[in-house]
Amino acid sequence: MINLNLFLKDKDFCNITSPLILSVSAGVDSSVMLDLFIRSKQKIVVVIFDHHTRKQTASEVALIKKICLEKEIDFYAHDIRISKKDDDFQNKARLQRYEYLKFIASKYNTPYILTAHHADDLAETIFMKILRGSSLYGYAGIHKIYKEDNYIFIKPLLQYSKDEILEYASKNNVAYLEDSSNLSDNYLRNRIRHNIIPFFKKENPSFLKQALIYNNQLSSYFDFVRDIVKTIITNINSKQSLKEYSLNKETVRLDIITYLLEGFDIPHNNILINKIDKILLGNKPNYIIKLNTNYNFIKEYEYYYITSSSNKSEKILSQTLEENKEITINKEIFVYSNKEIEESVILCYNIINLPLILRNKQDGDILEFAYGHKKLKKLLIDKKIPLSQRNNLLVLTDSTNQILYIKGLYINKTLGENKKIYIKQKEIKKNESKQ
Description:
Layout: H1 4-8, E1 20-24, H2 28-40, E2 44-50, H3 57-71, E3 74-79, H4 89-107, E4 112-114, H5 119-132, H6 136-139, E5 145-148, E6 151-154, H7 162-171, H8 188-203, H9 207-232, E7 240-241, H10 242-246, H11 250-263, H12 270-281, E8 286-290, E9 295-300, E10 303-308, E11 318-320, E12 327-329, E13 332-337, E14 345-349, E15 357-360, E16 366-369, E17 372-375, H13 376-382, H14 387-390, E18 394-397, E19 403-406, E20 410-411, E21 419-427
Parallel strand pairs: 1-2, 1-4, 2-3, 4-6
Antiparallel strand pairs: 5-6, 7-10, 8-9, 9-10, 11-15, 12-13, 13-21, 14-21, 15-18, 16-17, 18-19, 19-20
């Protein structure tokens, strides 16, 4: 049985002076939570969602509205308009609910949002996470308190079972409506609720208490690991050290990946996390993993990081050059001259075929040396040039496609020594204007 006096002394919310945003339905869990907080005399604001999936929802909204009007409680009903045929209905509906709850919380200048999850929900969620695969944090199931952005989500009924909630509703004449969809086994959660949870309760009458202990222990382990990860990853937008990554235990490594994926709001599971870990520990020095339409996970020699898949420098096929005429490509100024210019490199030659052309590297590019020739691709591997830089590499050739120069990597010294041209390729720095 839920003891009102003990409930009101809960340290997680009893001393809060800001308004509490209660996310409710007309089900027994939400109705009991609402009743408890009405009795608490704390300032509450009630939000109910109509998903338009059942005819009953209008009656549910009407019931909660009636209670709030009688008790002079601020009340908001919000429509969720998603097709029932949508394969991702549950997730999309959840995201819409949470965004609206945050909106109402900001309206009342409070960070506190409360939901009516209870001990049975916790046990069900643990089984769902195990079946689908999750992170260390996810396996804990549901957390009584967690922070997201500037909001604090609290589940005040998490330590209470469904039976205790029903008993409280009965003894205190709490009005509620039963959601008929809870009886259907069309949903995984319902199948777990109807078939798995009863078995464990029968095997151990204290099963829900044990699930809560498991949840709290795993949450503590997660908090410990996550604190370590935050000392390693101080900026999710920076390149991270592969050497440092490889020195960590597997648990820390996997949470490093999870932390990065979470930071970019990228959906993830154990399969993806372990795949990335294997690649980071593997011998292949360069690797690109497409995470979604917006982001890639990059491994390149000593570093790894997540980057926008659209974050690419301007690319060109080729650009014909004129002597002494500056051009700007990929945030660099390029110019060549037969006369000496500042900050230039010297290319010696006897004969070259004009015009000169600046282009991207191409498959099959060959470099000439006094000892013979070498593929550009091999040089880039030997120099450990990251893939992200290779894709934007600029190559200077003559009109016969003979490679003359690549900034910082190559000058063709097989062309003779009778004549000289001066080549300047300079990065444009911030706040530096082109003269």
